[in-house]
Specification:
flat, 9 helices, Alpha-Beta Plaits, four-stranded antiparallel β-sheet, about 35% helix, 2 domains, alpha+beta, five-stranded mixed β-sheet, about 400 residues
Amino acid sequence: MYPFLRKILDKYAVIAAVHVHTRADGTRNFNLIILEQKRHELRISKKASISDIQEISKEIPPNTPLCVVISGKGVLQKSIPSEIRTASKGLNSVLPNASVDEFIVQIMEGFENNWIALVRKDFAEQLIGELQKQKLSIISLDIGVMSIHHIIPILKDKTSVLDIGINELVLLDNKVVAIQAPSSEEISTLDIGGEKIESIYALGFSSAFKTILHLEGEGVGVDEVTQLKEEYLYNKLFRKAGITGLITIFFLLLLNFVLFSYYNNKNAELNSKLGYRQSQLIELQSLKDQLKQKQEFFDQNSVVGSSKLSYYADRLAASLPSGIKLKGLNIFPTTSTKKNDEDKYFRFDTKAIFIKGESNRSNTLNKWIRELEELEWINTVEVLPYSESNKGLGEFELKIIISQ
């Protein structure tokens, strides 16, 4: 998206945030908060603590952007040296043998050290998928308490210990010194810039606050979340363009009505030229008939079908995940390899595509196959040979049957 378009569209009059906390027994709680920005003032329009994920969409107005915060079971938060500021180095300091491709990492600056929060990528993607099924417009993701530092400076009560429900934060000079378990189950109240909220909504408020004000560090850079935000911005653009288009059509119709009488008078003049145009129309019809005959000939000989090569190749490339490397792509293979078979040598199977490649994980390949099967122009995807090489890579071959 062009930067000037993003600058126009990446503004939110209303924004929602949901803090998803997973307890030790696997049950979850969803603390939802909705903020509105009016005349440079930020106000809380709704708060709700929900136990069923299906109830979230009922509380949020349609097309409202949603920030997601994940905490609790599955999320690890630890202190790291202050010189560590990148995800890869932070993950290596906490889990030396872990792959950065398997985790989502977020880092927050502390007082004398930094803080890191991490969660397995498949865990977060599963949650995002569940929220997507509720037709929610996800634009941001935060892990643990890593977004809380954005609202600490605007807290009215400057205390050394900040209760945010799931944790207590020890503060010094508006920075986190320690993260510890809550000392009480009682829900406290926070005064954030004049807005009073229960402590369980603090993380959701901070995530929405930094997103709506475009503060540094708008969540973690997860490809799926980044793509969802792009989709939201494009949908927002289409809605605005649709309204503009309707207004434009209205004025065009009005102009058409005003000019109708003028063109009605011109109609008489055009009728006088009709005789000459008739001969041209006859000639044009003759050319169309010739074109139709040639088109039918091309269709029968599978010539036109090959024009879709670039489309299919482009769609397959666009859907290719990062863990898969293509080694071969055969679109519309020949139905015979015998050069002496003149009847079949120049005929192609316009319903088939063969793909060869390598995958670092079988799950990545299976996920890609499911995504391919959901494409409307693909009928079936069949796995032919699959084996693992000495390097630990899975070598595969797919056969795709096209439905159109």
